[in-house]
Every structure is written in C-alpha cells, then in structure tokens.
Records
---
Amino acid sequence: MRQLSPVPTILPSVYHSEERQAMLEVVRDLAMNQVLPLANKLDPVQGQIPDDLIETMADMGLFGILVDQEAGGLGLGVFEYCMVTEELARGWLSVGSLIARGNGVTKTFPAAQQRELLPKIAAGKWLGAFALSEPEAGSDVASIRTRAQRDGDEWVLTGQKMWCTFADRADFLVIVARTTPFDPARRNAGIRSFYVPKVRGQFPDGIVGTPMRKIGYHGWKTWELAIDGLRLPGSSMLVEDGADDQGFKAISQVLSTARVQTAARSIGLARGAVEDAIRYAQQRRQFDQPISDFQAIRFKIADMVSQVDTCRAMMYQVASDIDAGRPVDHQASMIKYLASEMSERVTSEALQIHGGAGYTTEFPVERYWRDARLTKIFEGTSEIQLRIVSDRFLPRPAKV
C-alpha cells in the first residue's frame, strides 16, 4: 500500500547541513524505535520514563545540546534543540520535554556555578526542575508569594508551588521566591531564583511533595510542593547583582526559548497524530473502499499536514533568530500560540478520522489528543501569548 510520510525527510535547504541532517535521522530513529514503543506500553498505565532511556539520551548528548563544548556539551543552538524536541515529542510528549531538564536550566546561574555544574548537566548526571507557579501565580509571574527571608548566613523559604514536573527525580530544584514583601506598586521587585541541590528520588527537609492527578503527560510526575522553613546557604541565590527587578527579567528571558521549544513539542504531537490518521485511513474500509478515498477524509488530512508544516516553518525561523541573537519575545509567543492551538485541532481531527476506535485506548491517537491539550496551558496559556503579542502592536491598557 502506498503511504507517504507527511513530514519531510530532509531539512529545508535554507536550514540544511550534513551535521543537522545526521542528527535529525539519529534522533528520529531513537524516537520511532525506542520512545514510541515505550509510550504505547507505559502511558496507558501511567508508567514513567525508565532510567535506561534517560541514560541513552545522555549518551547521545541530548541534555547538553545548548551547553558549550568546553563544558562537555554539543555547543549547538536553539534550532537543533527544537529539531530534536519535535522528533522526541512525536514519540512521547514526556520524552520531548525531558531534555529541558538539562538544556537551558542553568542560563541564569552565576558563571562560577555554571563552570561547576554544566559538565554534569551535559552528561545527564545532574538534571533539574523549575518551581515557579503557585496557586495564585502562574501566567502572572509577578504575583508569586513564596518568601525568602534572610536569617544570618542562610535563606529561609516558605510558600507553596504548583506544577513542578520531575521534581522528585531531579538532582536540583530552581525555586522562584520573593525576597521582599509583595508590593502592588512594584510587583516585579524582589523576585529571585534559588538553587536547591537534592538527592534524586527524594525531597530535602523543608519540602513536602504531593503528586498531582493529571489526565495526560504521564511519563513523569508533576508535583505540588509545600515549602516550610526550607533552609539554604546564603550563596543559593542566583543573579544577586543588578536592579531589584533583575530576577523577573532573567525569568522572562528564559521563557522565550521555552515557548519555542513548546511549539516544537506541539508540532511533534500533531505530526504523530497525522501519521497515524493517514495509516488508519488507508486500512479502514467502508462502502467497499478505504476511507482515505473519500474526499472528506482526504481534505482533512491535507489541511492537517498544511497546518503542521506551516507551524514548523515559523518555529524554524524563530529558533534561528534566537541563535542569531535577535529579540524574539513576541515572535516566540506567536509560534507558541499558533502551534499549540494547531496541535489540539489536528490531534482532534485525527481522533475523528479514527471514529469510535479513536475514543478507545487501543490506539495512541487519544494520547496525542490528551497531551496536545496541555500545550495550550503550560509555558504560558494561549491567552497570555495573545496578550504579549497584542501588547507589541497596541498601547497597553491603563488597567487590565
């Protein structure tokens, strides 16, 4: 049976190089032959990513894509980071997200700390988790209430964090807290990040973790963290120098890359759904012919492929602009918004093509659909992305 892949096997000429093409093919082989079978086996029973897959990814250098070669990384750019992410997410969103536990986590760390930690991170031996969101602060970072108070030579942190994925299996946490009381007139002031090393598989004294019950993203646990009197050395604060809003600005800068990577994750999910829909449509017969012969199905697939390719083209562009040092704040929000919205639409259409079979756990399309819904929420909701983009082209309202 004639069946063509909806994804190009060769990178577009403007982005192509032999090194990138080779990397693409190696990671695609990993995703399709190791990651996808694990997803099909483990996701239905909410099983987590096994350690041996993490070790395989570490051996391939995937946690050090953005780490300089001098520190043991691959010394590549956001383009390669997103290219790899798409391939892994096509197999399993949880694995497509896993490489973020190394790449870019330490961008706001002081130079001395980076020199110490980056070799371990690049080798996959020291992976982190990011604790930012709270019950009343997610998209609105400036509303965080977790407090960090000085006590002699130590910091004492107290508060509550939500949606901290991989917190249990991480080797360190980065916790965002406020060093001054919340001031509505200076909402960005006093926000700082703190480095918290820990034992893999445990939480340090002063933190109690409760796993959150999710409808998808089952490859790892996501945690609510109750922080009560967590004591840290005075040197734990990251980016101590600069203006009192320096910490807020540092977090905002990291989010641009995270949003483009989320677009790559969304594209990978949608691509998986399209590939499965094409395969199913050619196998499923009604009225004595495969349903892929019906114009309604053919036009659905044509539209789905067009949406995936369009988002990938913009994702490549924005990632390349980041690598070139260009400011991309609103462009990153654009592609995060477009790709995540696209992913939900495309995975839903793929499920529709499967008919009743799509509403069972017998086919992986339902996993793509559940996971795609998350991409509209994490790393900033679709509504927040639209606000960022509209603020770029319209005067900000006096009061939201």
---
Amino acid sequence: MYQINTSTNRIKGLKKIKFSEHGIKERQHLQEWLANEPKVFGGEDLLIIQKEFSGFNDTNERLDLLALDKFGNIVIIENKLDDTGKNVTWQALKYASYCATLKKENIKSIFQDYLNKQSENEIAENVLAEFYDLEYDEILHLNQGNTQRIIFVANEYRKEVTSTVFWLLNYKVKIQCFKVTPFALDEQLFLTMEQIIPQKDSEDYIIKMADKNYEEIATQEGLKDRHLGRLEFWNKILPMLKGKTTIFQNISPTKDYWLHSTVLGVKYTLVITKSYCSVLVEFTKPNKEENKKMFDEIFKFKEEIERNFGNELNWNRSDNKISSQIGFYLMDVDIFNKQDWDKMLRFLSNNIIKLEEATRNPLAKIRKEM
C-alpha cells in the first residue's frame, strides 16, 4: 500500500506491520473496530447483536461477535490478531452448532442485553423491525434450519485452517475468511480488509460447485441407501422360496433391482422398483431369432399356462429387442417404502412359484421338440 502525494507527484510506501508490535489487542481493539463498522465485511449489512456471547448451556465458551444478516441468518464472527491458530475452525463450528438452537425470542433477548450493555436507550424489537423493514411480529425468518454463517478475521491463516475451510465449502457450510492487514505511515495506522476465501470474484462459482458437489454426495448416499434396501429385501424373500420351488435355491441376494434364476437357458426373474414389482419368464439368449422362436413356441400354450397360473399374463414378444418375456405385475408399490414390503413379498414369492409350475411342462415339451 502506498500514499499518493499529489503535490509532489510521488508515492510513499506504507509499512506492513504486526498488530502486536503496536500494542493492539484482539478484544480491546480489533473486535471493537469490527463491531462498530460491520460494513468492513465486503459492504454487507450486518446487525451486531452481541459481543463475547457466552449464552451456551454447560459451557463457558465465548464467541467474539454475533450478528444477523439481511436474510435472518445468524453470523458467527471469530477475529484473531496476527495468526488464526490451528483450532479456530473447530471452535467456530462448535459455536455455529450452539447457535443453531436459538429461537426468535432468544435472539431478541440476546440483542436487548447487548443494547443495554452498550448504554443505548433502544428496544431490540424496534431495531430488528427497522433492520428488516417489517413489523417485529412479521419477522418469521430468523435463524431457520442450518443457515448459520461463519466469518473469520485474521492477519495470517494457517494451512490447517484454509484447507478445512475449503473442505467445508464443499459441504455448503456458509463460511468466509477475511484477511485484515495493518499498515503504518509515520505515526498513522491504516487497515485493509480483504475477503480471501472464497475470493469475491469467484464466490458465485465456488457456491455453484459446492451445490454440485453436495448434490453428487447426496446422490451417492441415496444410491447407497437404495442398495442396502434392496439387499435387505432379497434377504427376506429367498428364505420364503427355500424348498418350495426348484428355482432360486442357490441364489445370493444382490443390491440390484432384479434377481435371476436360470434354468436350461430360461430366466425366471423377480423385479422390484419404485412403482411396481413383477415376476417374469425371460428368453435372453444372445441370438434374437432363437429367443423369438422360443417365445412363439410357448405362446402356443398360452391358454394352458394362464389356466394353470390362475391369471392372465403379459406376453411381450418385443420385436425390436433381442429378448422376450412373459410377466405378471403388481402396480402401485414402492420398494423404498417398507410398508409395502409384506404385500410385495407375498406377491413375488407366491407368483414366481406358480409361474415356474405353469411353464414347466410347456418348456419341457418345447425343448424336446427343438
């Protein structure tokens, strides 16, 4: 940073200093500057509602500054002097978790206490109403959900801190780092505040990437839950088939939405989805013509098969596909709704047994002729 002297048309360098070299204290000085000039945080409108807040149950910990933003989010501000230390992120996350429980009336009480200590003859309700340009009773959006924000202020950031902050941003934690730098020119002291994480010109991009990463993580977790759910379902149905049919006797449960048992080139299949479940006989050999011939041959036994099965079946030759299938369906059930499981288990176990029995003799005759 340089001072411009317009009369001499020269610049003079300011000396970068350390706070501690000039007797500047964290709470006595830096904290007071921030509390009384909150627009230093990139020009954002913040309302400071408490200093040295310690209103946490079962702990004597104190956060430096507590604020509200224009969206009703709680903002935890942790300011350090020359160095962040290595535990500041953990400290701030604890404070954010504590503050997540604060309700509207808690916030009003905390703010009123702050105003009283500041010897300002003001009513918290009135100041909040003015800040949000609403009647106090109309302010319904204070500290909703997990919307708490964290702001760090320090002259130097350790790698442990910046690495953790970038990682937290990927999980959509609302967190910012401001670098505060003091300068001296003769007897005068100067201060700069610069947002370094996320950098202002790339903040929107980083937020979008965090949204994408969070969505991908949520998708992965969803897939994992689905896999575990299907595995659990198959583990329930296989014992129900044990000893009652020749198929599915040596089959292991899987994470897939289907379970196959192959007998002499014909697949008996159980299917579970979000909207239906079904039992199938499938002709899935690599040769399309062979599959269509098998389907056409067994179709000749349609009346006999449906009579023995006890219901009409869905006969799907699928001329444009390699495979063909015969199926029976139960609609409006969801594998991810466990309340549907008993109905699905009964349907699948009963009907796959009946389907195998109804198609056994026709398939034996077809194989003999072919």
---
Amino acid sequence: MSPVIIGVDPHKRSVTIEIVDGRERSLGQGRFGTDNDGYRRMLEQGRRRPDRLWAVEGCNGVGKHLAQRLVADGEPVLDVPAKLAARARVFDTGHGRKTDAADARSVAVVALRTTGLHRVSPDDHTVALRLLVDRRDELGRARTDTVNRLHKLLTELIPGGAKKFLSATQARALLAAVRPRDVVGRTRRRLAAELITELATIDRKMTAADTQLTELLDATGTGLRTLYGIGPSSAARILGDVGDIGRFPDRGRFASWNGTAPIDASSGEHQRHRLSRAGNRRINRVLHIMAIVQLRNDTPGRAYYRRKLADGKSPREAIRCLKRRLSDTVYKRLVTDAKIRAASTAEPSSSRLLT
C-alpha cells in the first residue's frame, strides 16, 4: 500500500497542505497558521492518516522551521526542491496558475513520483557550524568596510596614508602622531579614533569566532583540514552547507551542486562545454581559494595545473580543471569522514552484543 502524501506549501505566517493518495487523488486540504495553535491543528489533520509522509517545499529555506518542527514530533518529512514543484505545477491542469493550493498539490505530486528526495533529519552540528561561519563572514565584511573608511580618513590626515594591511594597534600608533589644529582635521581625527575602536572590537569578535569554529570542528573529527588550502572557516563552510554527504550519489553530482562541473553545450559533431554559473557559490569560492593556495605552493595541485597548461589549456581553463579536481578530493574526504562516523557509532552496539 503506497503512503499518503501530505504536500506542504510553507510561508512565514501560514501553511497550506493537500493530502493525495497513490493515484494523485485529493483526500483533503487545509490552510493553517504557523503559530502553535495552527501547527497543532495541521498536525492533527495529518495524523488521521496512519501511512502518511510529509513533503515540504524548501526545507533549507522558508520551509526549514516547519520541517524541523515536524521531524522533532517524529513525523517523516521529505524535502521537495522548489524547482521541481514549479515544473509539476506547469504541467498540471489549471493553466499553471500559482496559488497556495496548487503549490501544495505540486509538492505532493513531486514527492509521490520522484525517487531520491532527501529525507529531512534533525538539526545537528553542521547547522551550528553554518551559523558560526555565517557570523564569521559577516565580521569579515564588517572589518573590510571599517578598514576602508579608516584608510580614507588616514589618507586625509597623514601624507601618503597608511599601509594596505592595517591592524588597530598600527592605526592607533599612526593617529597618535597627528595633531590637527583646524576643526575639519580634529573632526577627521575623532572619527578615525572611533573607527579604530570599532576595528579592535571586530578583531576580538573574529578571534572568538575562530576559536569557537576550531573547537566545534575538532568535535566533529573531520579530516577536511588535512587537505592543502582548507582552513577552519573553509572546513566549517563545507560541512555547514553540504550537511549529509549521502545526498550526493557520486562526485559528479557533488561537482554539479557546487558549480565546478562544466555544462555540456555540444551541438551536432561539435563537442564543447561551457562554464557553469549555477551551483552553491559559497562552496565554489572555497574551492577557488583552495586552488589559489595550492598554485602558490609546491603541491600536486600546481603540478596538475601546469600539465593542463602544457596540454593547451588557457590559465582560466586550467584553474577550472583544478577546481573540478579539488571538488572530487573534497567529496572523497567527506565520504571517508561519513564512513568513519558510521563505524564509530556501530562499534558500541556490536560490543554490547558480544558481551
């Protein structure tokens, strides 16, 4: 007996569901609020079907909060990508009109007819890593903005300005020698002093964030940092955005997801490929940084890059080939980490059986 699918179209303050059977026949609909009372009524309606399976659109986006609430209550939940739901809606009756009810039905149909959809699991350490590395990136952008504004003021206060890479201590020493007499100069000096204080505060927060990232990474036992060119922030970004590596059946799917796999643009007898602008650009940036670090040092990555140049590739094409190769290396490391974790969790249960 095929399970009943509960398609869910989530929004910030409301959620629409449609229940369909194995033949796509509607068994019920409903619209509920996302507050505690609305969620309870939605859950009660769904639990009337003992063989139910929830299908939520965008479990890494707007549907994340609802999906995690369902999982926490012991409900089976599938993650339906919004792109697949949109395709199903276009080919449905009703001229493809976008309504909440139509979206909920499309989500249910996709879950019913599509194999390999990701099963939602409770938030774990990867979510904490993603939160921390997002905060670390925000601090990095804030520091860059603060330093740029400080450079502008120092250029107007000191002939020749300050050096490019500037710390709060160095900026404070430079500013100590400046004693403007006019009101404009004194105003600039005061604003520069405020920016130096902000810079020192941001640096302390970045140091604390790096410490937290390192501690959490050590707790995961990941081997990503053994790869040349990956530091704590890059490792945390990979773990946080990838989550469960098992959702990628092979290294090709992983490369397509992170945008390092070229797109086939062949026509007739002309075989060619073009650069992919799709995929997770944050992971793509991590792989790009990894490639640049390897090119600057005597590594197998630089040797591979030079071989591609010798084969007639341009520098840009060669570095794209290297990024694709590094994507495979990261995928292999993540798969190995997953196997090690699975073995470590299986050992205690097997030892109990032996005793």
